[in-house]
Amino acid sequence: MSEEARRSLEDLLDREIEVARALAETLDAERIALTGASPEAVEVKAAEKVRLLASMENLEDERRALSVAAGQGLPGARVPLGTSIAAAVAERWGTLMGLVARCRATNQVNGYIINLRQGQVNQLLATVRGSAPLTYTPQGKTFAKALRALAKA
User: Fold this and answer.
1) pTM
2) C-alpha angle 1/78/56, rounded to 5°?
3) How far apart are CA 17 and CA 20, in angstroms?
4) What is 28-57 written as a DSSP string?
5) Cα–Cα dist 46/31, whole Å
6) For 43-100, what is each residue's pLDDT tens digit?
7) Is residue 37 one of the residues assigned to a domain?
8) CA separation for the pair 28, 30 (Å, rounded)
9) Number of domains in the chain
10) Would you state the torsion angle of the CA atoms of residues 103, 105, 106, 112, taken in this order, to the nearest 10 degrees?
11) Is residue 12 within 8 Å of 63, Cβ to Cβ?
């Protein structure tokens, strides 16, 4: 790999790391918003997350093109692994992969929170509508216990 190509790749990886850090911070803020009472905050953080993901994707495409042009791949990348890469590039790559793994885990937690909240809302709507909730018998079988509606419209 030429010195110029290596420097370009290092710069590109630095930009990817910067965006990945911003994404990690946004995902943390999204988790806080999801557990709060402001739907507007959730919407703002979700929009920011989408913007950062698009930026990450563009940088990844640029990195792949640069790696292919230099005849050099990175571990775990979708281009063939070349003979060797500079230690600085390998270090940046490891940092980026660690940040991406953190983002993935945080995003999964946020998804669990969303699913939990959705279930809570569905339960509340069922209660307001007078739907029979599922309860369990001493044998562990489910059955619907009839309730009357809280209100009629």
Assistant:
1) 0.75
2) 90
3) 5
4) HHHHHHHTSS-HHHHHHHHHHHHHHHHHHH
5) 10
6) 999 999 999 999 999 999 998 888 777 766 665 554 344 445 677 888 898 999 999 9
7) yes
8) 5
9) 1
10) 140
11) yes
